[in-house]
C-alpha cells in the first residue's frame, strides 16, 4: 500500500504530465509539417507516446534499482530546481536537446554550495547520457520527419529531424524528514542518526537533432557513440569526485568541456559535408517511404535516386507515374543508393493504384 502511494506522488508531478502533453504537441507538429510539405501525413502512427511510455518504464525500473543500491540522494531544494529547469528543457525538445543542461547547472551549484552531492549529480549525468544513447538505438527511418528547405543555390533539399524523449520514474533518497512531514505516507529510512525519505523523481531524458549531410543510420550510430562516450566519462568523473571532493570544480568543468568539445566537433564535421538529400535533375530522389505501402517492402531508403521505372527513364513526378501505369500490378525500379551503388528492386502494386506505391518525392513546383 505504501508503494502504491509512492507511485501516486510520481503520477501527480507536473513534469510528468508536461512530458505526456508535449508528446501530443510533437505529434501534432509532425503531422502539420508533413501536410504542409507533402499534402499528406507520412506516418499517422503516434509512436511518440508509445516510445515515451515504453522507454520510460524500462529505464525507470533499471535506474531506480541502481539508484537504491548505490544510495543516490538529493536535497529537496535541488529536486525542485531540477524539475523547473527540466520543464523548460521539455518545451525546447522539438527544436534542441537541453535535457542534460539542468544537471550541469545543478553540478555547478553543487560545487559552490553543497559539494557533497556533486558525485550524485555526475552519476545522474552519466545515466542521462546512457539513456540518451539508447533512445535512438535501432531507430526506423519512418520515425524521422523530412522537411523541405532551399540551399544557397535555391535548390530544394530534405532535412530530417528527430525528437525522442521520456520522463522516467527514478527512485531517489531525500535527506531529512521534511518530505515525510509533507507526505506522511512516504517511507522513512534510517541510517544511524540520518533519516532519508524515498521519492520517485520524474527524470527527463531527450535526444533531438537534424540530418542533412549524412545517411540516417550512420548519423544515429554517431549520436549513440557520442552519448556513450560522455556517459563513460561521467561515470569515471563520479568516482573522481567521490575520492577527491576538493577538486569538484575541476570535475564538472572537465565534463562540460567533453560535452562541448564533442558537439562542436560534430557541428564542424556536419558543416563540412555536402547536403545529401538534394533534388536531382537525373532521376527522382526518394525523400521518405510511407509505412504499410508496397514501397516499404522494396528495400528503398531515404536518399535513394530512382533512375528507371518499368525500364523507362524518369526525371520528374509525371514521368514516374506514367511509367508506373505501364504495368498496373507490378513495379520494377533501378535505383542508385547514396553510396553510389546501383540496385534493382521490384514489388507488387496493390488495388491497381500506382499512386499508393508509397514513395514520397519532391512535389512538382506550381
UniProtKB/TrEMBL annotation:
<protein>
    <recommendedName>
        <fullName>PDZ domain-containing protein</fullName>
    </recommendedName>
</protein>
<dbReference type="InterPro" id="IPR001478">
    <property type="entry name" value="PDZ"/>
</dbReference>
<feature type="transmembrane region" description="Helical">
    <location>
        <begin position="250"/>
        <end position="268"/>
    </location>
</feature>
<feature type="transmembrane region" description="Helical">
    <location>
        <begin position="103"/>
        <end position="127"/>
    </location>
</feature>
<keyword id="KW-0812">Transmembrane</keyword>
<feature type="transmembrane region" description="Helical">
    <location>
        <begin position="227"/>
        <end position="244"/>
    </location>
</feature>
<feature type="transmembrane region" description="Helical">
    <location>
        <begin position="57"/>
        <end position="76"/>
    </location>
</feature>
<keyword id="KW-1133">Transmembrane helix</keyword>
<feature type="transmembrane region" description="Helical">
    <location>
        <begin position="158"/>
        <end position="176"/>
    </location>
</feature>
<feature type="domain" description="PDZ">
    <location>
        <begin position="283"/>
        <end position="316"/>
    </location>
</feature>
<feature type="transmembrane region" description="Helical">
    <location>
        <begin position="182"/>
        <end position="206"/>
    </location>
</feature>
<keyword id="KW-0472">Membrane</keyword>
<dbReference type="InterPro" id="IPR036034">
    <property type="entry name" value="PDZ_sf"/>
</dbReference>
<dbReference type="Pfam" id="PF00595">
    <property type="entry name" value="PDZ"/>
</dbReference>
<feature type="transmembrane region" description="Helical">
    <location>
        <begin position="6"/>
        <end position="29"/>
    </location>
</feature>
Amino acid at each position: 500500500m505504501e508503494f502504491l502511494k509512492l507511485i501516486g506522488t510520481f503520477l501527480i508531478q507536473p513534469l510528468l504530465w508536461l512530458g505526456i502533453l508535449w508528446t501530443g504537441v510533437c505529434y501534432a507538429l509532425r503531422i502539420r509539417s508533413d501536410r504542409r510539405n507533402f499534402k499528406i501525413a507520412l506516418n499517422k502512427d503516434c509512436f511518440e507516446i508509445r516510445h515515451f511510455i515504453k522507454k520510460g518504464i524500462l529505464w525507470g525500473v533499471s535506474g531506480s534499482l541502481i539508484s537504491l543500491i548505490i544510495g543516490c540522494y538529493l536535497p529537496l531544494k535541488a529536486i525542485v530546481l531540477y524539475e523547473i529547469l527540466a520543464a523548460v528543457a521539455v518545451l525546447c525538445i522539438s527544436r534542441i536537446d537541453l535535457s542534460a543542461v539542468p544537471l550541469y547547472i545543478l553540478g555547478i551549484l553543487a560545487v559552490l554550495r553543497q559539494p557533497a552531492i556533486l558525485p550524485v549529480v555526475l552519476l545522474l549525468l552519466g545515466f542521462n547520457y546512457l539513456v540518451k544513447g539508447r533512445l535512438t538505438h535501432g531507430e526506423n527511418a519512418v520515425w524521422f520527419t523530412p522537411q523541405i528547405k532551399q540551399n544557397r543555390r535555391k535548390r530544394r533539399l530534405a532535412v530530417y529531424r528527430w525528437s525522442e524523449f521520456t520522463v522516467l520514474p527514478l527512485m531517489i533518497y531525500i535527506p531529512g524528514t521534511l518530505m515525510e512531514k509533507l507526505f506522511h505516507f512516504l517511507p522513512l529510512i534510517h541510517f544511524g542518526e540520518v533519516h532519508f525519505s524515498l521519492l520517485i523523481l520524474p527524470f527527463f531524458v531527450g535526444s533531438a537533432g537534424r540530418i542533412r549531410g549524412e545517411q540516417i543510420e550512420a548519423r544515429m550510430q554517431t549520436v549513440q557513440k557520442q552519448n556513450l562516450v560522455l556517459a563513460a566519462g561521467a561515470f569515471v568523473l563520479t568516482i573522481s569526485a567521490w575520492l577527491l571532493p576538493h577538486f569538484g570544480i575541476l570535475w564538472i568543468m572537465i565534463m562540460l568541456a567533453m560535452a562541448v568539445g564533442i558537439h562542436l566537433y560534430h557541428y564542424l564535421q556536419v558543416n563540412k559535408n555536402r547536403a545529401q538529400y538534394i533534388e536531382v535533375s537525373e532521376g527522382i530522389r526518394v525523400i521518405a517511404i510511407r509505412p504499410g505501402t508496397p514501397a516499404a517492402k522494396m528495400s528503398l531508403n531515404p536518399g535513394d535516386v530512382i533512375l528507371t521505372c518499368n525500364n523507362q527513364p524518369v526525371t520528374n513526378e509525371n514521368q514516374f507515374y506514367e511509367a508506373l501505369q505501364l504495368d498496373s500490378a507490378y513495379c520494377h525500379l533501378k535505383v542508385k543508393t547514396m553510396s553510389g551503388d546501383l540496385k534493382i528492386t521490384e514489388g507488387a502494386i496493390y488495388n491497381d493504384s500506382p499512386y499508393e506505391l508509397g514513395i514520397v518525392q519532391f512535389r512538382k513546383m506550381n
